[in-house]
# Entry
Amino acid sequence: MRYLYCFFILFCFNSKSFAQKQNAVKSETKEIESGRITKQFTNGKLTSFTVDMAAVNYGNTLFFTKEDNIINIKDGQKPDALIRIYLKNKRYTTDLQYQNKELMYIESIDLDLNNLPPNSIISSQYKDGKVESIISRANPEDTRGLDKVLKLSWRMDKKTNLTDIDSIFNALADDFSQEDALLKIYYGRYAEKFEPLPVAYLNTDNTGKIKKGIVWTETSGQNGKYNIYSNGKVIKSANQNLTDFQKTIMDYMEKM
# Structure
């Protein structure tokens, strides 16, 4: 009889625990323009989310998961492609891999013209009233057929102001919950309206000195001065506001 009583208590306890575990897992779905986002929570913590796309990507699905302090993003139409987001020296870092080969790498840095990383390609953008800078490398010859994956990797908002993976993951989920989230990534002219303004493109030598490139430095408001470098020397300088500088940097990039 005691055995049956203990078994009954154990059964009730396990049933209660199972119910609690079941109640701890939930999902939320929200419709957005041309798709929907579904978030999965465990004990109130976001563990994964998917973005289902209708017309934008012909029924494609994006999968966002988090494991071992790395955010993994998969495109349902390109299962061999993987976008990763992680922290390197507490800085936002992301890469794009295809068939286990790196196609693109981006790492957030502070732009200090007197202390730049050596042998690097550095680009900067003006976003939310401040400059954000990255070092990057890419293998463009290996990106054929990956146009939509590249758009996703490049146009996702880079959370360079956040310093822990959970915050970055939650912020990405918030971004993809916005009504126009997919349009900002895949819909050409609409997406371009939200892209930050470029303010620098630099190449450094093995000592971290600028070999060539162009950089705009803000002086007050959106007024500033730009320098163009060649062979380690400034070959042109001029005062120019941020809006007018856009044509200058585009012309420079086209001539490279």
About this structure: Confidence is low (pLDDT under 50) at residues 1-20. The radius of gyration is 23 Å.
